[in-house]
């Protein structure tokens, strides 16, 4: 569904609410040419108490932290961004939605150094369903191990959510889709499993959970962190600094993705090897996750910012 088909008409930009079509930048903006921007993807869920933003504080902190390696200073306090986001949701009368804050170097000069370029910032919000498809939440998705490797943290900061780095994700994902798969898996430079193009990975073996650690070059996903907490609270053993080889994907009892967009999505096939449809551990964690984010329980209420 295109944006023009959605009931959205407003974007917050540089401290002001503007019409959707008027949220524009100069074609010579530094961020457009060099990928010097940082962003977040955040979910807001429809609950009995009204729209509730999931883990706003953690997402806001990561946004500011992501800008640090690039000297990208956001001239707005997190509290201002939070209130702007809530007002954006109210103005558009959204219930559940996806929220995209983005900060980037704007237009001044076009050298590689952004020295005199201003920091621009915008927040958009729009309705968005299951990222990998509603059926995928139950049936799972087919994934292909990509020929493209994840860049190493010695090359570019892997824990900064940087706009330009998602070219790597695009290449991996489009390669997988061109071969009939729904999504990709990316290996790191050592050949171990890193993550999906926009998701973290969990492997289940003998009732225990394994997920690649930060040393494997992954993004420290907020949904990943949430699922680790939920799983441990349910009594599962979680190995959150695991090294997972490519071969282990083919012998796993269960595999699933986590992410703001993907939420908790099972993986039913890796390359030409069938893992199977949603397993019992994935199903329990997925069910618990949706009970929490849709506020069918009072647990983890501090994870939510109510609009």
From TrEMBL:
Lineage: Archaea, Methanobacteriati, Methanobacteriota, Stenosarchaea group, Halobacteria
Cofactor(s), by name: pyridoxal 5'-phosphate
NCBIfam families for the chain: ilvE_I, PRK06606.1
Any one GO molecular function term: L-isoleucine-2-oxoglutarate transaminase activity
Annotated function: Acts on leucine, isoleucine and valine.
GO process annotations (BP): isoleucine biosynthetic process; L-leucine biosynthetic process; L-valine biosynthetic process
Membership in a protein family: Belongs to the class-IV pyridoxal-phosphate-dependent aminotransferase family.
Gene name of the encoded protein: ilvE
The protein's annotated pathway: Amino-acid biosynthesis; L-leucine biosynthesis; L-leucine from 3-methyl-2-oxobutanoate: step 4/4; Amino-acid biosynthesis; L-isoleucine biosynthesis; L-isoleucine from 2-oxobutanoate: step 4/4; Amino-acid biosynthesis; L-valine biosynthesis; L-valine from pyruvate: step 4/4
Gene3D superfamilies for this protein: 3.30.470.10, D-amino Acid Aminotransferase, subunit A, domain 2
Catalytic activity: L-isoleucine + 2-oxoglutarate = (S)-3-methyl-2-oxopentanoate + L-glutamate; L-leucine + 2-oxoglutarate = 4-methyl-2-oxopentanoate + L-glutamate; L-valine + 2-oxoglutarate = 3-methyl-2-oxobutanoate + L-glutamate
Record keywords, A-Z: Amino-acid biosynthesis, Aminotransferase, Branched-chain amino acid biosynthesis, Pyridoxal phosphate, Transferase
Name under which the protein is recorded: Branched-chain-amino-acid aminotransferase
Pfam families: Aminotran_4 (PF01063)
The enzyme's E.C. designation: 2.6.1.42
């Amino acid at each position: 569904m295109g944006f023009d088909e959605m009931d959205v008409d407003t974007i917050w930009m540089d401290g002001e609410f503007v019409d959707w079509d008027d949220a524009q930048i100069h074609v010579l903006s530094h961020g457009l040419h060099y990928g010097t921007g940082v962003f977040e993807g955040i979910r807001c869920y429809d609950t009995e108490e009204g729209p509730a933003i999931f883990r706003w504080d953690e997402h806001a902190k990561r946004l500011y932290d992501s800008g640090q390696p690039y000297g990208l200073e956001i001239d707005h306090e997190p509290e201002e961004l939070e209130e702007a986001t809530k007002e954006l949701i109210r103005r558009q009368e959204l219930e559940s939605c996806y929220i995209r804050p983005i900060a980037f170097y704007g237009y001044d000069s076009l050298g590689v150094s952004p020295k005199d370029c201003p920091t621009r910032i915008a927040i958009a919000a729009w309705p968005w369903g299951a990222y990998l498809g509603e059926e995928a939440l139950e049936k799972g998705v087919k994934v292909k191990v990509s020929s493209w490797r994840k860049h190493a943290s010695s090359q570019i900061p892997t824990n900064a959510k940087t706009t330009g780095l998602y070219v790597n994700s695009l290449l991996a994902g489009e390669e997988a889709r061109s071969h009939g798969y729904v999504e990709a898996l990316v290996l790191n430079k050592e050949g171990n499993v890193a993550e999906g193009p926009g998701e973290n990975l969990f492997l289940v073996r003998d009732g225990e959970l394994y997920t690649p650690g930060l040393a494997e070059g992954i993004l420290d996903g907020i949904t990943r962190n949430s699922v680790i907490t939920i799983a441990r609270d349910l009594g599962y053993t979680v190995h959150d600094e695991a090294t997972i080889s490519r071969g282990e994907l083919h012998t796993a009892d269960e595999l699933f993705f986590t992410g703001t967009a993907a939420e908790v999505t099972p993986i039913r096939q890796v390359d030409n090897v069938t893992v199977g449809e949603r397993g019992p551990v994935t199903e329990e964690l997925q069910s618990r996750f949706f009970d929490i984010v849709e506020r069918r329980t009072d647990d983890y209420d501090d994870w939510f910012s109510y609009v």
